[in-house]
Amino acid sequence: MTLSEFLLEWKNDNPRLLVHTSGSTGPPKPLWVEKRRMEASARMTCDFLGLKANDTALLCMPLDFIAGKMMVVRALVRGMQIVAVKPSGRPLQQLVQEAGYKKIDFAAMVPMQVFQSLQQPEEQRILREIKHLIIGGGAVDENLERELADFPNAVWSTYGMTETLSHVALRRLNGSRADIWYTPMANVTVELDGESCLVIDAPCVCDQKIFTNDVAELHEDGRRFRILGRKDNVICSGGIKIQAEKVEQKLIGHLAHSFVVTRAKDVRFGEVVVLLTESPDLVDVQRICAEILPKFWQPRLCFHVLRLPLTGTGKVARAEAERMANDLSRLHSAI
Fold first, then answer.
1. Are 276 and 324 in contact (CB under 8 A)?
2. pLDDT confidence band for 97 (50 / 70 / 90)
3. Contacts for 72-76 with beta carbons within 8 Å, 24 or more apart?
4. Is 243 within 8 Å of 136 (Cβ atoms)?
5. Which end of the chain is more exposed for a tag (fewer CB within 10 A), N or C?
6. How far apart are CA 62 and CA 299, in angstroms?
7. Which residues of 4-29 are buried (b: 16+ CB within 10 A; e: fewer)?
């Protein structure tokens, strides 16, 4: 979808808009959302960050997904100037090539875009100049967080989903206000259900509470929170529960190639930890896992894949990764 196509859809008489979930944990699902609630979400973000009229807002996310749509809505609600570039893994490359480009006041990117921008000196310079940078669509790993720690302007990790019309909480990644806890925006409250999963109450953007599959911990103040992983990513192996995201966090910075931790069915253990990696050197991968991970977290199976399955927004498609792991596990058992 182009910007002009979205603007036509936004300005038509239909009070609702069709969006799709990202597809990271299953097939993308269609979802009708009210434009007035998208506007309410946009105002919350603009107020939280102190964005103002005539600020420049970088549009570098696909307009097929809620993240891209909401960037446009925020610009419309607050009267910001949209600077649109082609969505890619290096969104600032186009600005480098433009003489006299406008400095960016506000940008939203996924971790991959931020990481790749940091690798190019000119793109890194532009990235550091952005006054308000929000990062969503996936977890910000510890290595990336360290690279952002000394940025002179505000950098935030966001928490949210399509159902909450983008983010409902932010966590500062740099400066003296850096924090491990997410702070909900105005009129948003959270609690935990019986399985320690986050429940979101955001009446401005959702007409009912949202019960997530995100295992979380609440701060003692009862308002802030942090995410430990997804309930659907808990691997029950031989009676031991293993959070896939925790295993991944331990391995980040030690494995040179892209990877994902998932599971496969097993007759003896019920489920086993499986690591899919783009590295062809599985002996080295297994050696690193044995050195870094606790015994019960170590993958029982490691498989080389040419490419990890990704969603349209660049996140690992975990449901597809699990299917791949089960298929490879069956082939391995048959050999």
1. yes
2. confident
3. 72/3, 72/6, 72/7, 72/10, 73/10, 73/38, 73/39, 73/41, 73/42, 74/42, 74/45, 74/46, 74/106, 76/10, 76/42
4. no
5. C
6. 35
7. eebeeeeeeeeeebebebbbbbeebe
CA atoms of 308 and 317, how far apart (whole Å)? 8
The tens digit of pLDDT for each residue in 35-71 reads 999 999 999 999 999 999 999 999 999 998 899 999 9
The order of strands in the sheet holding 189-192 is 189-192, 197-201, 210-218, 225-230
3-state secondary structure of 83: strand
> Structure tokens of 279?
């590295």
Q: Which amino acid is at 57?
A: A
156 strand-pairing partners: 134, 172
pLDDT tens-place string over residues 100-122? 788 999 999 988 899 889 999 99
The model carries a pTM of: 0.79
Is residue 174's pLDDT more than 70?
A: yes
Average pLDDT, the chain: 93
